[in-house]
Design brief:
Length: about 350
Amino acid sequence: MARSSGSTGPTLAVVAREAGVSVPTASKVVNGREDVAPETRRRVTEVLDRLGYIRRPRCQTPKPAAMVDLVVHSLDNAWSGAVLHGAAEAAHEAGLELVVSAAATRGRGGSSEHGWPDKLYARGSSGVLFHLTELAPAQYAWLDEHQIPFVLIDPAHDPPPGVPSVAAANWQGGMAATEHLIGLGHRRIAVIGGLGRAVRDGGRVAGYRSAMAAAALPVPSAYVRYGDISEAGARHRMAELLDLHEPPTAVFVCSDQMVPGVYQAAGERGLRVPRDISVVGFDDLPQARWITPALTTVRQPLSEMAAAALRKLLRLMTGEIPEAIRTELSTRVMVRSSTAPPLRALL
């Protein structure tokens, strides 16, 4: 963290902590920036004077760009690639340096892993974007203690009250996916969700239920299944659906990652997609276009979500309070080759 120009004296981090603001905000006051609220400026100035902070003399050396971190669960999946693309473009437009790292949300025994927090604090990051399933309570506490602004991108679970996030309109997407199948003439439509306790998957399944209810179509309990976001789990759930006395003629799968397992289960029964069963996914990952047949799916705007999260983080870094703590971006159905009207014999 930046120090005063003397060999002794408080660091800017100490000033920020005493004044109850972030380090970037304290820095703005020290450097005479205008984008600081009057009351915040007064509070920081009082602490500067009380602690005897010595301001650096101005020089002609260009200041390095502010740095923000992007922490993802893994760097080897399509979700992270899309998030990185959107965050990197938005950071470049804002003149920010972006540091990317991968970290699990929990360590052994459920304890939080502090490797990445310590690193981002040591290098003086001004804020953090998280694309993780969830943060541990200890991690939320650490961020609060160190007064580091952060934003969650597409959290699978509801964050604590007041935690800023950007997500897709999951309910809207689930409803649109189901309405597409209903519009093709399907009446027996099933759904395969991912993690049952995830609010993200819950929203998609709720959208499915809303579309079915609006069309006055029944939803047998056997038509609602949950996997584990794996191909193997989806294959088992799809096999269970096909074993029913009245199997569905279409299925909404809440993640593109599970779709190959659905295709496999259908193929093992001698069924073809979409002639015998229609399939809609969710995400619009690159594999949705490569798989055969090409997948009709709900596009989740991950790159746009990451860019929106970066812009929200910028406002937090300057001490602003966002107009909306949670932001949802619209989804839309990308129609390809995996859906078709049902065979008359199966109606």
